[in-house]
Every structure is written in structure tokens, then in C-alpha cells.
């Protein structure tokens, strides 16, 4: 059985915990008999049990940013703002030039506070995890996107390096590098003419030098120079 929350379905037990977390009093008669027995959801449970990005956004909405921060006590490592210009289509169908400031924040969270053992699929002995916070340019919704700091570092380094799980790469990267890393492509470096982003949909126009290669993450340089429009 599933329950729909903000147009997305969640497993029944997870849904009940999300509803309990969001509301001080039972909002539905159907849950009144079990309301006192429902355990509010924690950020640790959200991170472990909800993989979909939009699902996590909704769950974190139910939890509330203040409760999230109180629970995991993230450390702000870096904040970067890019001045952007893009073109939107107005309600009348006409193009509107829009200038705005796009701010990204890179945070660090101790693995213990996430309920994650240091021996994890992200690297044995890893004690810190990182996420980048950003707002949707059209709806003003806030998203928290987890990133692999070591992989972000590699995507922005000219050197071939071996990463170590004992090194905290969070201090070696910035927020723009982190958000760029969340976009992947199989087009070689130098083969992209421009990038257009509409929500989670990424459109890439290639140039004459484009070669399909292995899947890789975008660098900060590509994000700053090639992203020409988004909504």
C-alpha cells in the first residue's frame, strides 16, 4: 500500500512517518487510531530509505530544514554565487530576459550524525559526507544534493591522482564544483558547445570536436562557461 504526498507515492510506513513529522495533530481520521504509535521520521531514515531526489526533497520538506540542521548539524564549507542571464517564456508566449543570482552552498556532515558506518560503499574509513544546497531557479524550491567530494576533486583536477578515503576532500573543493559534478555526460572535454538545463533535464549541444567517451562529471569551468540557459 502506498500514500501520495505532493504527487509522489511513498510506501505506507514511510508515508505515515512523514505525515507524523509534518503535522502536530493527526490530519486524517484514517490514521487517528495509530497516530500516537507512529514514530516521526529522522533525516538518517530519509537518507537511508529514500533514494529518489524529488522524494528526498518532499521528505525533507516534511522534516523541515530547521529540524534537519538541528539533527545533523552540518558545517558550511563554502558559498558561491554566480550571476546568470537566461531567457524564459512568459504566460503570453513571449521571451523574457531574466537576470538572477544563483547561490550554492557546500556543507559537510559527520558520518556518525547520518547514522552511516565509516565503512560504507562511499569508501572505507570515510568520516565525512558532503552536500550542495541550491534553489530551483523558477520555483524557489531548495534542493540538497549529495556529492562525492573525492570525485568532485578529480573532475576539477588536471592531474591523475589516487584518492584516499582517509583524506577529507571537502576542504579541497568549492560549491560550484560540487553542483557541476551532479551533471554527467559521455561527451569528451572540449566537445560541448553549450548546455541548456530544464529542471532535471539536461540538453547538450556538441561541436565538431565531440567524441563519445566514458561517462564523466562536469567541471566548474564547463558549468560556468557552457550553461547558457536554465529554468
Tell me what you see in this structure.
- With 231 residues, the chain is an alpha+beta fold.
- It has a domain at 1-71.
- 27% of the residues lie in helices and 36% in strands.
- The chain has helices at 12-22, 43-49, 53-63, 65-72, 111-114, 149-155, 175-181, 220-226; strands spanning 2-5, 8-11, 75-89, 95-110, 119-120, 123-124, 128-135, 142-147, 184-187, 192-198, 201-206, 212-217, 227-230.
- It has a 4-stranded antiparallel beta sheet with strand order 3-4-7-8.
- Strand 10 (192-198) and strand 11 form a beta hairpin.
- The radius of gyration is 20 Å and the shape is globular.
- The chain starts with a strand and ends with a strand.
